[in-house]
């Protein structure tokens, strides 16, 4: 039985090729930001209200006019077929069954159109979003946007934190640079004549700028979210350039190492956008309490990356379903314990930065009985 998100990782690691496990777990350079994301949630405290709950709690959200049953999105992760033969089809079916929004990675190993067909065939109609790396060749970018639009994606998540590919040193040591034979980046196949869907077709370009965002704004009417804006000044610029939302993300610590945890940046980013666009946060979300903390501070929703890959590796579609159920239960339980009858009751006063510290006092006498001596940390 998997009781926690962490259990999925342990179970997946027992089965996975360690090279792929490293690809999932790893981050850039010293992985300081990878650790910071999770640690930031642990440092914040919850301060619950009592005697004001309700028998049932409302967990649904609405983003850009679309309903989802949970404030938890599946952040875009590449290469699902590395860990499960059905790949993104399995993830998408699980997401749809749970009523959760999945952001399909541009580097998916099942084409976004096929993902959409599979979900429709299952009779579920939950919005899907598409993650895009703007390509310096704008015709290619336009073709990708068309593929996503034709597949019924209802928003574009444009990743802007990757002017160059993050330095995943685990991958370098392991010599993991390409997909194994038989797997392709299916969204990239035949964008130009004869293109085979090679990972290296994805251009990470340091020459992208705000004019590219304006150009994209002009070719699509889909809502555009920028993923990877960390500086409040860039958040202001994003709003000025007509962006519809932000996915506050440090790419799970996989791009620039030593940037702050996303949770720590949330208040500054929210202040910068002044409520004009929704802010979704990802990075280190592993518990219902994490979801509650991010929402109480003002995030509209959160995203999860690695947990989905672990769950997919551990149990395919069923694994991802169980993961989403588990997070749903934890979220519901946390709301109840906070005296909240729905997400709307999550207000910043429920979250505190600890003010307590070790009480200064005389050093404990060596050998003294610590049980009764009032000994402090
Ligand atoms: C294995 C893996 C693949 C990823 N692939 C992509 C991707 O293709 N595009 C993207 O924008 N972000 C990608 N990300 C970043 C995630 O979207 C997300 O920001 C991050 O995983 C969130 O942190 P978490 O893993 O702590 O939940 C990837 C992350 C992982 C772990
Ligand atoms: C070219 C694929 C990029 C995947 C990615 O964004 C990541 O592994 O973090």
UniProtKB/TrEMBL annotation:
Its cofactor is FMN. Belongs to the FMN-dependent alpha-hydroxy acid dehydrogenase family. Residues 1-356 form the FMN hydroxy acid dehydrogenase domain. Coiled coil: none annotated. This is Alpha-hydroxy acid oxidase. Its EC number is 1.-.-.-. Residues 368-377 have a biased composition (Basic and acidic residues).
